[in-house]
Amino acid sequence: MRKQFGQGSIVKVFMVFSDPDSTTPPLDPLTGNTLIDPTTVTLRIKNPAGTYTLYTYGVDVGLVRASTGHYHFLLTLASLGTYSGKWTGISSDKAAIVFEQADSYTVAGL
After folding, report:
1. In which domain, by residue range, is 97 found?
2. What is the rounded distance in angstroms from the CA atom of residue 109 to the CA atom of residue 107?
3. Cα–Cα 20 to 30 A to 37, which of 11, 59, 71, 90?
4. Arithmetic mean of pLDDT, 4-16
């Protein structure tokens, strides 16, 4: 999903991880699936210059677990152009199921 913002904006990039094969609480209100915390959660951000930065939950303090299955990161949109982000969650208890979601954020000049 593409969103447009002003230069210098701070956006909350978020992800909700849930197990599509389970309906045991706690549940994701949008899907009705069980909320889970993957073994590994990462967010890869590509800035307008094409440089990638990888953030890992438990290593990078900016990547926050708000509650079971809910993660977020505050991204500062410092440059004009398009930023893209890709969340990945790997769950060892589900035979290495990978959950992914991608978003993009465009910074336009005034």
Report:
1. 2-108
2. 7
3. 11
4. 90
The total number of structural domains in the chain stands at 1
CA 17/CA 82 separation, integer angstroms: 25
For residue 98 the two structure tokens come to: 């990978």
In this predicted model, what pLDDT tens digit does every residue of 43-91 receive, in sequence order? Answer: 999 999 999 999 999 999 999 999 999 999 999 999 999 999 999 888 8
Instruction: Name the range with the highest mean pLDDT among 2-6, 46-50, 91-95, 96-100.
Output: 46-50
DSSP string for residues in 19-58:
ETT--PSSB-TTT-PEE---SEEEEEEE-TTS-EEEEETT
Q: Please return the burial class of 99, using the count of CB atoms within 10 Å of its CB with bins 0-12, 13-18 and 19+.
A: buried
Q: How far apart are the first and last CA of the chain?
A: 22
Which CATH number goes with the domain that contains 50? Answer: 2.60.40.1930
**Predicted local distance difference test score (pLDDT) of residue 110:** 56
